[in-house]
Specification:
The structure holds 2 protein chains of 2 kinds. Chain A is α/β, with parallel strands linked by helices. Chain A is built from 6 helices and 13 strands. In chain B, helix 6 packs parallel to helix 7. The model of chain B has no long low-confidence stretch (mean pLDDT 92). The chains are: A alpha/beta, B alpha/beta.
Chain lengths: 212, 256
């Protein structure tokens, strides 16, 4: 079987080499690019992200990435957001009191973690995987590497619409419960860094690759 | 469940080799950094730290190579420090595959560089590393003084105030190294850890003085979120990381 082709979106977001290497390690043919056609054609698109919500959103917008992501999702083509690449999929991010618009794929706001715990939330934490999660299959009890000061702490998805299957939400806890991962049809995202989460992270990426 | 205490082996890299001495002197060879990084990854290290202990630019290139080779194959967070002075130095390390950079002397000399680096790359990218020692100098209120040049030069700067300022300026983490304890293997300086914990809420890595697994719980009780050591991992038995984690777990703290 041909290797699934994965594009890691290249828009100047910090260290993305480990994401590229990790995806290669678990069997993908990986390209680091911002070429429209390649981004749209790939079997899977990975959107990394580090730093500030507003800066990441601005950088993505400057290369038209939100439209590409929207088109892929509309066409049922898998997209995986990581860290701030996860956060920007929600409605908005509030950092230092300033709100920035996100992509609004999911309801909710990215807000500061509680002040009474050590922040940034940095290190290996446990998760409570969604039932029937594909990403966490076989690694439900593992720890993953997080590094962030903001998170989505409330999930307000309208599940009264019968025709829509509810997204699978995985939670973690640091001072408060927050969303560690979402799986929603072709669109998935993790607040932690699977590419930095050792064997458990490799398995999560493998689970994603195998779903492409 | 909660966040696990991180156990971090530190590799002091000089001209492409890992070295380690006592109180920063009498360096002895401890092996190939890429090989050691692999070994520690397999042994359950939660993160790795490379400190480039050389100053020459030729050796700096060697360190970049070492970082690149390690980042290709080891999928846990990698921090690199030693000689980081500017935003550009951080950018170069990130390009090689480092996840974080640590800054020491350059931040003491010009604290604004912290704002510059974290403004561009985010807080999570920058670790403030400081070498502190106990002092009788009455000008240093806390009794802990910042040193530079591997502990050989005092600065008269209060280490506790410095940690508070660096956190306010935006560092994402503090690596607190006790010069008095470094390399002695007699245990961490828990008073110093407690004093820093008291003034900041950023993650705190305790370093200096670890000699036995039983030394670690005291550092965590004093407020450390992570613990860093070199000699006892380089020269100890291969399961030393597991032994350290077991000691931490036995004391009631979560580990991975």
């Amino acid at each position: 079987m041909a290797k699934p082709e994965v594009v890691v979106l290249d828009y100047g977001s910090g260290n993305v080499h480990s994401a590229v290497r990790a995806l290669e390690r678990v069997g993908a043919q990986v390209t680091l690019t911002r070429d429209t056609q390649q981004v749209l054609d790939a079997d899977g698109l990975v959107v990394p992200g580090v730093g500030a919500f507003a800066a990441v959103m601005e950088a993505l917008t400057s290369i038209d990435a939100p439209r590409w992501i929207g088109r892929r999702v509309a066409g049922g083509r898998p997209v995986l957001g990581i860290c701030v690449g996860h956060q920007i999929l929600f409605e908005r991010g509030v950092e230092h009191g300033i709100a920035a618009e996100g992509m609004g794929e999911w309801p909710g706001e990215v807000t500061a973690l509680p002040q009474d715990v050590v922040v940034p939330h940095m290190g290996w934490n446990t998760v409570r995987p969604a039932r029937d999660s594909v990403l966490f299959d076989g690694i439900e009890d593992e720890r993953f590497y997080f590094v962030h000061s903001y998170a989505v702490q409330e999930w307000g998805f309208d599940q009264t619409v019968d025709a829509m299957s509810a997204p699978k939400v995985t939670w973690s806890h640091h001072g408060a419960d927050f969303i560690a991962a979402v799986e929603n049809g072709p669109l998935a995202a993790t607040q932690f860094h699977p590419e930095k989460s050792g064997d458990a992270g490799m398995q999560l990426l493998k689970n994603w690759i195998e779903s492409l | 469940m909660s966040l696990a205490v991180r156990v971090i082996p530190c590799l002091d890299v000089d001209a492409g080799r890992v070295v380690k001495g006592v109180n920063f002197e009498n360096l002895r060879d401890a092996g190939d950094p890429v090989e050691l990084a692999h070994r520690y990854n397999d042994a359950g290290a939660d993160e790795l730290t490379f400190l480039d202990v050389t100053a020459s630019s030729a050796d700096r290139e060697t360190t970049y190579d070492v970082v690149t080779q390690t980042a290709e194959e080891v999928f846990i967070p990698l921090t690199v420090g030693g000689g980081v002075r500017t935003q550009e130095d951080v950018a170069a390390l990130l390009r090689c595959g480092a996840d974080k950079a640590s800054i020491n002397t350059a931040a003491v000399t010009r604290p604004e560089v912290i704002d510059e680096i974290t403004g561009r790359f985010g807080s999570q990218v920058l670790v403030l590393s400081l070498d502190a020692r106990r002092t009788e100098d009455l000008g240093v209120a806390s009794g802990f003084e910042v040193t530079t040049h591997g502990g050989r030069r005092g600065t008269g700067i209060d280490a506790i105030s410095w940690c508070r300022e660096a956190a306010e300026r935006g560092v994402g983490e503090i690596l607190l190294n006790s010069i008095d304890a470094d390399g002695t293997q007699n245990g961490f300086d828990v008073e110093m850890i407690r004093a820093v914990r008291h003034v900041t809420t950023v993650p705190l890595i305790a370093s200096g003085g670890a000699g036995r697994p039983e030394h670690f719980p005291a550092a965590i009780d004093a407020g450390a979120d992570a613990v860093l050591a070199a000699s006892m991992f380089h020269f100890g038995p291969v399961d030393m990381i597991a032994q350290v984690k077991e000691a931490i777990r036995a004391a009631g703290h979560p580990v991975r």
